[in-house]
Design a protein that fits this description.
RNR_R1-su_N; disordered C terminus; two-stranded antiparallel ribbon; 4-stranded mixed beta sheet; single chain; globular; allosteric enzyme; deoxyribonucleotide synthesis; ATP-binding
């Protein structure tokens, strides 16, 4: 048994760092947990879980765990893509005996008609490129099941999605499959403007304390804030709370029109209640410290910098605070729809540590055209959603792995080089998306509500920010082309959180900096930044978001914002938030022109390393002795402090 398990592990260790991977030690650990009658499937699962627990020793253990799990899945599933799709199409409910197909008849027919070509295009070895956490996320949430058992492999899922996008265009489906291979629970976000008479009660709804009948903790809350409120807070002025029925039109206007209407109602005394603006501001900050919400979105920036401003006033965003689209009681715009995809930015770092902007632009164009196709072939639960999507055709292209790209380039997240690369990346994505959308418009015509939009007048997103792009791309030529043909999509970029998709690909989320390095994730006091032996350049490179100035995070958000025509899910991280820190951060975000000033406020529970002192002379002699033994210099860090005490507030 020992030799059999060890041999199986060794076969899957190709390309891994065998200085850290010990198959024999793993086997001993597995055997110690075996029981009589264990099946081969259960054994594989146990071996994979054992490898996963060793990831803290070396990340290659996560790759090994995934390989074992994938190998196990391959043993249980069919190799033929078309056969698996046939099983999914002919699936029967065992209880009722009724056929319940998991794929549509149209796509089933296309797959069967092109079975040989699709089957031969799939490269199953790519399933082994996932890490364990990514694979288990796929297995749990994305791979289709028959009678509760996973029926398809990751590569088959990707091909199924590609055919769903392109239908009978098999070559395009295979192209998309190749790019993909290298449904979501519902939630509600409630948006309210701060002049509403119930705003104070609104801010209490997610709090942990208070009567349950006065709380709604499963909802998410956001403020849709006009500039006037921010100025009143800054000036310590009065703020009036008004009933939308007594004071109509406030939510239908923005900018000067809103301010004129608000001050007219204020002057006429039509408000329900007058408070100091800072009293309400304190309630907002207090709620954020306790619950991480409400989100902060700036109404005037969202409308002033929107390519949909010709349609009317935008009144809210979405659950993740990156979608800024028009909706209205009118049937054709009643339900705004977001059509999303994310690009893994770390994939465009060349081996020589240069960035491949050309490839990024090329892939962005493919993503844009794919999303545009999805609008036409998608399933719409309500007709209003279909009508809106067909009229405005908005896209939401996001990213993941920005921090990973910086690491590969050896740029500290807050360095000048990273800041410039941040601009160039989003400039490239915006350029590629616009160019692709213009090419689509040349063939199919611009989207229905194009006329009157800023872009129909030659105004691009960066123009609304009064920003001049770099010389990386020929913007003048693109503007001339757009002026001639228009664009097929009203909106293009919307960096979303990428919570699960980043896990699948093993990337850091979205535009975020790393929240932790694994060897310090439980420690707040005594972080690695305070260890003298680590070189300064490594300290800078591996800074976590807790060690990066949030002012820098906001500045980088504003820099990329000039190329984001929707908005971005921007989390703010403050380990120990207070009124002063939050107020300063919010006002800086507003003054920099951000649309989303804050998605979630992330804070840290108290966690302190046990305090003790070390005689530096003894530390030096110990380090010198270790260096001689290992043949290394004093610059090496070979010790680990394991005594950690967690004290959660």
């Amino acid at each position: 048994m020992f030799d059999k398990i060890t041999s199986r592990i060794q076969k899957l260790c190709y390309g891994l760092n065998m200085e850290f991977i010990d198959p024999s030690a793993m086997t001993l650990k597995v055997i110690s947990g075996l029981y009589s009658g264990v099946t081969t499937v259960e054994l594989d699962n146990f071996v994979a879980e054992t490898a996963a627990t060793l990831t803290t020793k070396h990340p290659d253990y996560s790759v090994l765990a995934a390989r074992i799990a994938v190998s196990n899945l391959h043993k249980k599933t069919k190799t033929s893509f078309s056969e698996v799709m046939d099983d999914l199409y002919n699936m029967v409910n065992k209880t009722t005996g009724r056929k319940i197909p998991m794929i549509g008849e149209k796509y089933y027919t296309i797959i069967m008609d092109n079975a040989n070509k699709l089957n031969s295009a799939i490269i199953y070895d790519r399933d082994f490129s996932y890490n364990y956490f990514g694979f288990k996320t796929l297995e749990r949430s994305y791979l289709l099941k028959i009678d509760g058992k996973v029926a398809e492999r990751p590569q088959q899922m990707l091909m199924r999605v590609a055919v769903g996008i392109h239908g009978e265009d098999i070559d395009a489906a295979i192209e998309t499959y190749n790019l993909l291979s290298e449904k979501w629970p519902g939630g509600f976000a409630i948006y309210l403007e701060p002049w509403h008479p119930c705003v104070f009660e609104f801010l209490e709804l997610r709090k942990n304390t208070g009567k349950n009948e006065q709380r709604a903790r499963d909802l998410f809350y956001a403020l849709w804030i006009p500039d006037l409120f921010m100025r009143r807070v800054k000036e310590n002025g009065d703020w009036c709370l008004m009933c939308p029925r007594v004071c109509p039109g406030l939510h239908d206007t923005w900018g000067e029109k809103f301010e004129e209407l608000y001050m007219r109602y204020e002057k006429e005394g039509r408000f329900r209640r007058k408070v100091k603006a800072r009293q309400l501001w304190c309630a907002i900050v207090e709620s954020q410290v306790e619950t991480g919400t409400p989100y902060m979105l700036y109404k005037d920036a969202c409308n002033r910098k929107s390519n949909q401003q010709n349609l009317g006033t935008i009144k809210c965003s979405n659950l993740c605070a990156e979608i800024v689209e028009y909706s209205s009681p009118d049937e054709a715009s009643r339900v705004a729809v977001c059509n999303l995809a994310s690009i893994a930015l770390n994939m465009y770092v060349n081996p020589d540590k240069t960035y491949n902007f050309s490839k990024l632009k090329e892939v962005t164009k493919v993503v844009t055209k794919n999303l545009n196709k999805i609008i036409d072939v998608n399933y719409y639960p309500v007709e209003e959603a279909r009508l809106s999507n067909m009229r405005h055709r908005p896209l939401g292209i996001g990213v993941q792995g920005l921090a990973d790209a910086f690491i590969l380039m050896r740029y500290p997240f807050d360095s000048v080089e990273a800041k410039y690369l941040n601009i160039q990346i989003f400039e490239t994505i915006y350029y590629g998306a616009l160019e692709a959308s213009c090419e689509l418009a040349e063939k199919e015509g611009p989207y229905e509500t194009y006329e009157g939009s800023p872009i129909s007048k030659g105004i691009f997103q960066y123009d609304m920010w009064k920003v001049t792009p770099t010389d990386l791309h020929d913007w003048a030529a693109l503007k001339a082309k757009v002026a001639k043909f228009g664009v097929r999509n009203s909106l293009l970029l919307a960096p979303m959180p990428t919570a699960s998709t980043a896990q699948i690909l093993g990337n850091n989320e979205s535009i975020e900096a790393y929240t932790s390095n694994i060897y310090t994730r439980r420690v707040l006091s005594g972080e690695f930044q305070n260890i003298a032996n680590i070189p300064a350049d490594l300290k800078a490179l591996y800074k976590t978001v807790w060690e990066i100035s949030q002012k820098v995070i906001i500045e980088m958000a504003a820099d990329r914002g000039a190329f984001i025509d929707q908005s971005q899910s921007l989390n703010i991280h403050i380990a120990e938030p207070n009124y002063s820190k939050l107020s300063s951060m919010h006002f800086y975000a507003w003054e920099r022109g951000l649309k989303t000033g804050m998605y979630y406020l992330r804070t840290k529970p108290a966690a302190n390393a046990i305090q003790f002192t070390v005689d530096k002379t003894k530390l030096k002699s110990t380090t010198d002795a270790t260096a001689k033994t290992n043949g290394t210099t004093n610059d090496s860090l070979s010790g680990t402090v394991n005594a950690v005490k967690n004290e959660e507030e």
